[in-house]
Structures are given as C-alpha cells and as structure tokens.
Amino acid sequence: MSNYQQDIQAIANLREAMGSGWRDINPEYAARMKTQNRFNTHLDIAKYTADIMRKDMDEYDADTSKYTQSLGCWHGFIGQQKLISIKKHFGHTDKRYLYLSGWMVAALRSEFGPLPDQSMHEKTVVADLIRELYTFLKQADAWELNHLFRDLDAARDAGDTAKAEEITAKIDNFETHVVPIIADIDAGFGNAEATYLLAKKLIEAGACCIQIENQVSDEKQCGHQDGKVTVPHEDFLAKIRAVRYAFLELGVDNGVIVARTDSLGAGLTKQIAVTNEPGDLGDQYNAFLDGDYIDSAADINNGDVVIKANGKLLKPKRLQSGLFQFKPGSGEDRVVLDCITSLQNGADLLWIETEKPHVGQIGGMVNRIREVVPNAKLVYNNSPSFNWTLNFRQQVFDAWSEAGKDVSAYDRAKLMSVEYDETELAAEADEKIRTFQADASREAGIFHHLITLPTYHTAALSTDNLAKGYFGDEGMLAYAGGVQRKEIREGIATVKHQDMAGSNIGDDHKEYFAGDAALKAGGKDNTMNQFG
User: CATH code for 38-274+328-397+436-461?
Assistant: First the structure.
C-alpha cells in the first residue's frame, strides 16, 4: 500500500473511531490536505533543511564538483517561482538553496523606504522575509500536489488504472519546494544578546543557516562599500556563540553558521583588542594596527592612545572619527586569521568578501587557512557589484600578455566596450565566467555560490523592457508578445495567474467543506480557461 493510501486508511480508521459526528469527513480529502502541508511549523523546516545542508557539506568534502548554489530573493513570490522553475527544468532541487540578502531587505523591504546596506532597516523584516519565503514555497507544494490530485481524479474517472497508479507514485515520491535558506543577519544588529534574540527569530521563521559578519553593528557597511570597520575577534566570537546557543535552544542542533570576514577591504577598527599576554588573540589583532613606535612619554600628544606591542610602545594612528587604522597591505593576513579563528570557535563555513571574482586570489587565502583547518570551505558572493565582463576580459588580457600573446588589438582600460564583444578575447572571458563556479569550487574551496541581489536587477530589467514597449510604439504587443506569449511558449505557470495564486486549491477545498453546494471560481466562465 502506498504512503498516500496508508494516510487515507489511517484517517478512515480515525473517522470510524470518532463516530457519526465525523460522517461527512472524507478520508481522502483529509489525506490530501495533510500531504499538501508537510511542515506544521517553520521550526520543522529549519530542522529539515539543516539536515540537507549538512549532507551537502559532507558530499562536497568528498567531491568538490558537488557544490551548491542560490539566488537572492526579495519576496516570497520570487523565491517560489525560482524553485518551481528549478523543478521544471531539472526535475529536482538538489544542491539549490535560497539566499536572503540583507542588502535587498534594506533596499526593498524597510518601512523607512529604500535604504543602503548599513543595518538601518528594522530587525524584524529579516525574519518576516524568511517566513514569507517559506510560506510561498509551501504554497508551491500545495499547488503542484493539487494538480496531481486533479489528474488522479481524472484518471480514475476514465477508468485508467495504470495512469492512476503512476500518479499515486508521483504523490508518494513528491519532492518539496522547501530548500535551505542562508539568512543574512548582518553584524547582529547590536551586542551579542541582540544577536541571540534576532537569531532565534530567524530560526523560528525557518532559517537553518545564519551568516554573520565581523563588522561593528553600528557602523556596518555593504561589503562592497568603503569605510568598513571590523571588531576584535573576541567580540565576533561572542556573537557566533550567541547564534549557536539560539540554534541549540530551539532544537536545531545541527544549524549552520557562516562566519563572514570583511577584513580584506576593511582598513579600520573601532576598538583596540584586549590582550593579556604576548601572542594571544588580542595581541595578534593589535599587531596589525598602523602606528609609530615611541621612545618616551614626550612623544605622546594630548588624546593619544599608546599600547605595548612587540615589547615596545606603539602609538596607533587614530582618525578624527576616533577609529584606528590597520597597516596597508595587511588585509589578506587579517582574513586568514579571522577565518581560522572563526572555524576554531564554532563557525561551520566561511565567507570572504572580495573586491573581484578571481579564483587565484580566493584560492591563495583558502590554501593558507587549510594549512590549519583542512576542511575549511566557503560561501562565496558572486556579487553584482563586480563588473564580471570587464574583470574577466582583463584577466584574459593579462594572461595573454604574460604568455607573450599579441594583445595590441585591445585597450585594457576599455575592454568593456561593445566593439570587443565578438572578439576571441571576449569569448575566452565568457567561457571563464561560465565555468567560474566549478573552477572556484575545485580550486578555491567554495562550497556554496550565491548571487546576493540578482532578482533586484532582473525585476528592473524586465520592467524597463515592458515599459519601453508598452508606453512606446509597441503598445499592447509589448505585453502580449513580450510577456504572455513567452509565458505560454516556455511553460511558465504564472500565465494562469488565478491558479498560481491558489484559486484551484480553494475551489477543491470548498468542495471538501460544502460538497455540491460549494460556490467555485473555476467554472466555464473563468477566463483562465483560455490558456488550456
């Protein structure tokens, strides 16, 4: 007996046990509703997806071609359509996640209006978006299963037993649209207690993986902006522990923590670390401070700060803002220390924010980290802040120059120009972009590739194309030909937008509840029928 049939039988037995008051409860209808709602709470989702992520991490350790991917989504509908598309084109969701971008939350979800990525938006909108994403993914389950249930009824009505058995097997083996979300908690929105409280909200909303960065929470900047300020390691480790305690409190014992370091592009610190003895973690952090060694108190001016480092008195350089500078060129060394320290103190994965997508640069840092922590692996931001075309054309140009190949036909500074689009150099650069994720996973320890805010850009681009045509000479053809016809030709389910929004699910539920007296929306006069 199939799992679906077992559920029907179990509810039939319960109905019989409950007596005549349950006589109008149809066991198959109840079983269908139960099947459509696999997860009773979003905490169940966090536990389920944490298991998936841990399995994927183990598989990557054994085979680096088994890396994972995600796209950042700023609305539940966008996340839902992404997973429906993945299932349609690839048949499964294996190794595909969602990313929740703090940048997009700030820019698109704050009640203050559009904001830069500087932790000025409300804390609660992060958890709200996680909850919304999973609500839409659960609805995608109900939507797809509802079609299977209707197909099953049609096969039975036609007396096609083989078809009915085939559909029942699909119901039994149904793969949920629910996948892991890597959730951006920024720098924790406050101290370690604030980080713990917010982490609980994210986990309760369904997050199995939380990404936290080592910037100061009140001066936090986007990883691709200037003016980033880091905190001493002990401050950051306290927040990592706070997130772990939140996972353990809520029973997500294998929750995943991504420790992000912005040290490569951060030249400032707000604090001088506490140090108790030479060579401890605080002393290592302070060793990167830029400053001047002094010989006597006469070298100290009013308001100067002086610390003992390397057995001598160091006067760190201090800006008018009160911030302290790190030594120029110390970024990579600080990144390596940050990453090793985070992994040795409870983090599971690393995120190194870089200024360009360069496999050699990333791999060089990861190799140094792996000398201490052999299974270190990254979540990497394939950022829209990078000019991918220009970066890779310049990388190819440099490689050709080093190899002695003639590059006189190209101007390195102008390689973004359309005049180079059909050249051999451009073709080689595009191939390197195409294989970047596989190359970086193999050579630079990247377990998970994400694009933080791609759907921000796709929404703007598609809206621009529609507006240009609709308000121009194309008129209604801009929509009919540029949108609706493409939906039909490419099998995009939203062409039947009433169905996608749950109209058929609601009609079937009405029938469950009221039988023949149900007033349905999907009859012969529903214009959705024009789409077949």
Answer: 3.20.20.60
